[in-house]
Design goal:
- The protein is of the alpha/beta class.
- 42% of the residues lie in helices and 18% in strands.
- β9, α9 and β10 form a beta-alpha-beta unit.
- The chain starts with a helix and ends in a 12-residue tail after the last strand.
- It binds nicotinamide-adenine-dinucleotide.
- Nicotinamide-adenine-dinucleotide binds next to α8 and α9.
Length: 504
């Protein structure tokens, strides 16, 4: 990712292709447009220009994709694990070979700075490799002998599954769901977010060129209420892996009720970072800034509430303010840029709306709080101080580069405030007192907690949230637990006594 000009040069021919062909569906190995012929327009958050037309699909296209996934399922399921492993590694190789193309497209489509997107494609490849290596053992089970039976368990893939993804880091998140599903032996229908359709259409082409059989991965573009809804209601789709907003998760649960869908939800967050006065404050400052201002703050694991001990708050917040004011807002394809434009005009007005909310609620705006002149959906990185946890700026997931700082006095206060939220995805604790770290992490309601660290993902560990932040876990074997069914088989080891009915 050398410089802005080189990145724009790399992007230009890719955009030309998309402009000419539009973004269509990919079903049973074939590219197609929506059968109704309708489309919607995808624009770049950078300068609001049109990128391309995108197929606006609905029930018909979802039905065709679900049928394709169903037809491809037996062969893919029956393929030896070692062969699935080989195909998935070939896909990882192919993603790595296109990593720079994926990175510039993702930046242009989402507004995410290239400094982060450059690694997103490589992390996508790593997801394929990690689950590829686990494919051969995915079906392994237990032997649980009883006095009369040899009981064994094995796992079998659940069937065709639906994957519905959001617009923040769409490529990486899609691979995070699709790779374990394929490794488990499931086939997939993917419905990408309407605001960021480009890299999903690239991914399926990369997969098939690398040897994935047609129909194993299908992509249907469209709106959530149309294509997304149809996918969650389709009877041939056995499970839905969903990443997105909490309220969409509730809707999907309702929509999937009639067909008894198994669901896996990775939802929103309002994650606290707790900074105690005994912590390494310089490192805490770096991590707190990174976890809310990287990826434009459009990040489910962002530390959007800073709980800072009153005894150090003034000094900590002064240093924080200076750093926030110094963040480099700019073109996302410029490697120097730290904050790019937000995904969409509607999202910009949602985020910017909280500036007025903060003023109305009586918080102070220590940094930012402004919307620069367009074009582009830019917002100044913002820090709210003098906030309390009952304010909307402390309760709502704003999903932008916006941090709400709340002081606390005691450890007990910190835990109470941290848990006083509808969400429970992550928490970050900064303290050098080991016993405090043990107490606090034990009592915080969150699926993932890091102590003296920013979020560092390790693929074998469980990823997911509690409360309104989600249901289920990804990572390690937890992903296979979702995409596979446990099966028990009991073999009689001898002529044990069988109750005789109907003999008088
Ligand atoms: P969203 O819920 O609006 O949309 C996500 C996807 O769901 C899109 O593809 C959309 O088209 C689809 N969808 C919308 N309505 C639907 C319906 N009725 N039926 C089926 N599908 C439907 O979310 P978003 O705005 O795209 O993404 C941001 C959200 O995602 C934030 O809340 C963020 O915290 C969350 N997120 C969570 C994680 C996590 O791991 N917990 C990771 C990334 C993002």
């Amino acid at each position: 990712m050398t410089d802005l000009t080189a990145n724009l040069d790399r992007l230009a021919p890719l955009l030309r292709q998309f402009r000419e062909s539009g973004v269509g569906n990919h079903i049973a190995g074939q590219r197609s447009q929506a059968t109704s012929g309708t489309h919607f327009t995808n624009t770049s958050p950078v300068d609001e220009t049109e990128i391309c037309a995108v197929a606006r699909s609905g029930e018909d296209e979802i039905d065709a994709a679900a049928r394709a996934a169903k037809a491809a399922f037996p062969d893919w399921r029956n393929l030896e694990g070692a062969s699935r492993k080989a195909v998935l590694h070939q896909i990882a190789d192919a993603i790595e070979a296109r990593a720079d193309d994926i990175a510039v497209l993702e930046s242009w489509d989402t507004g995410q700075p290239i400094r982060f997107m450059a690694k997103a494609a490589l992390r996508g490849a790593e997801n394929f490799r990690f689950f590829a290596d686990r494919a051969p053992a995915a079906r392994d089970g237990h032997a649980l002998p009883s006095p009369t039976l040899m009981n064994v368990t094995t796992r079998v893939p659940i069937g065709p599954v639906g994957v519905i993804t959001p617009w923040n880091t769409p490529f990486m998140l899609s691979t995070w769901k699709i790779a374990p599903a394929l490794a488990a032996g499931c086939t997939v229908v993917h419905k990408p977010a309407e605001f960021s359709p480009l890299t999903a259409s690239l991914l399926v082409e990369i997969c098939e060129a690398a040897g994935l059989p047609p129909g194993v991965l299908n992509v249907v573009q469209g709106l959530g209420e149309e294509a997304g809804r149809a996918l969650t209601e389709h009877p041939d789709i056995r499970a839905i892996a969903f990443v997105g907003e909490s309220k969409t998760g509730s809707a999907i649960m309702r929509q999937g009720a009639d067909t008894l869908k198994r669901v896996h939800f990775e939802l929103g967050g309002k994650n606290p970072v707790l900074v105690f006065d005994d912590a390494d404050l310089d490192r805490a400052l770096d991590a707190a800034i990174f976890m809310i201002y990287s990826l434009n703050g459009e990040r489910c694991t962002s530390s959007s509430r800073l709980l800072v001990q009153s005894s150090i708050a003034d000094d900590f917040l002064a240093k924080l303010t200076a750093r926030v004011e110094n963040l480099k807002v700019g073109h996302p394809l410029d490697p120097a840029t730290e904050i790019g434009p937000l995904i969409h005009a509607t999202h910009l007005s949602k985020v910017a709306g909280y500036f007025d909310t903060a003023r109305r609620e009586g918080a102070a705006i220590a940094a930012g709080g402004t919307v620069p002149e367009g074009p582009g959906h830019y917002v100044a990185p913002t820090l709210f101080t003098k906030a309390t946890n009952d304010m909307a700026i402390a309760r709502d997931e704003i999903f932008g580069p916006v941090l709400t700082a709340i002081p606390f006095d005691t450890e007990e206060d910190a835990i109470r405030i941290a848990n006083d939220t509808a969400y429970g995805l992550t928490a970050y604790v900064w303290t050098n007192d080991l016993t405090r770290a043990l107490r606090v992490t034990d009592r915080i309601e969150a699926g993932m907690i890091w102590v003296n660290s920013e979020n560092v993902r390790h693929l074998p560990t469980p990823f997911g949230g509690v409360k309104a932040s989600g249901i289920g876990r990804d990572g390690g074997d937890w992903s296979f637990e979702f995409y596979m069914e446990q099966k028990h088989i009991g073999f009689a080891t001898g002529p044990h006594k069988i109750p005789k009915l109907g003999q008088g």
